[in-house]
Design brief:
The chain is of the alpha/beta class and 305 residues long. The chain is built from eleven helices and 14 strands.
Amino acid sequence: MAYLENIRTFLRVYELGNMSAAARDLRISAAVASARISQLEEYLNVRLFQRTTRALSPTEQGNLFYESATKIVEAVEEAEAEINNVTQSPRGTLFVAAPIGLGQSYIAPAIPKFKEQHPQVNVRLRLSDRKLDLTSEGLNAAFFLGVPQDSSLKIRKIADCRRVLCASPDYIERRGAPQTSEELISGKHDCLNMRYPGVPEFQWPLQTEAGVKRFAVTGPFEADHGDVLTQWALDGYGIIIKPVFEISAHLASGRLIPILQQEPPVSIQLACLYAHRRRQDPKTRLFIDFIVKHIQASFALLPNL
């Protein structure tokens, strides 16, 4: 098993490009990770990485070995699944990511229930409104709002989520409610945007009489955390665009008021992404099935606001 652990360590170092990051991901020390790579290089009699004080990069042999090593680990995982019959008794650790709002309200509450049914499976949940890379982040699955760009991943659609433009009663009293979508870009209103490094100029897609039109809205505040935007809107600082499932309680209580309902935002797809393998890890499939069923049942109970 030591050789297999050395290979797994090599894969994480290769994918993350950093020994310390790979060690943290594997929950081992950097010294142990380095020792495993050295043992593997000694066994193979090749240098897998070029190391300097500031950088680590794979050698030509390292690039070649990565492709084969990935297949080795996948083959072992498939063999273990068959031998241990993990479809009936899954075990191991799942690394899962989700947007903050969805994760807090729908996925996190379901994980203990999944654990009750499958006590030998541990779940590591990472919540972030940034788009995460499954390979580099070491994820088994990622729940995702929007359209994924990586065609190498498999996607399981969960729902088309209705979105709404809304603001607080205080904001509407002070600034008025926009009567047309064009007012959003006229300078009369403040729009609160989700933005983080690497994201292109933000646009709100609305269904107008002329069809779907995108509006490059602006405002005084931006954040990379969806709950921050919601709180700013509740405090009267601007207009937000949100999936109804995230703010249904605020809409029902009247703390947020829908606006421009005659020109609503385009719905956004909720899906789950996972690696495209010849045979999916059974515990990953069981977890996705469980969470999808839970989300869909929860969405069915949302009020038709």
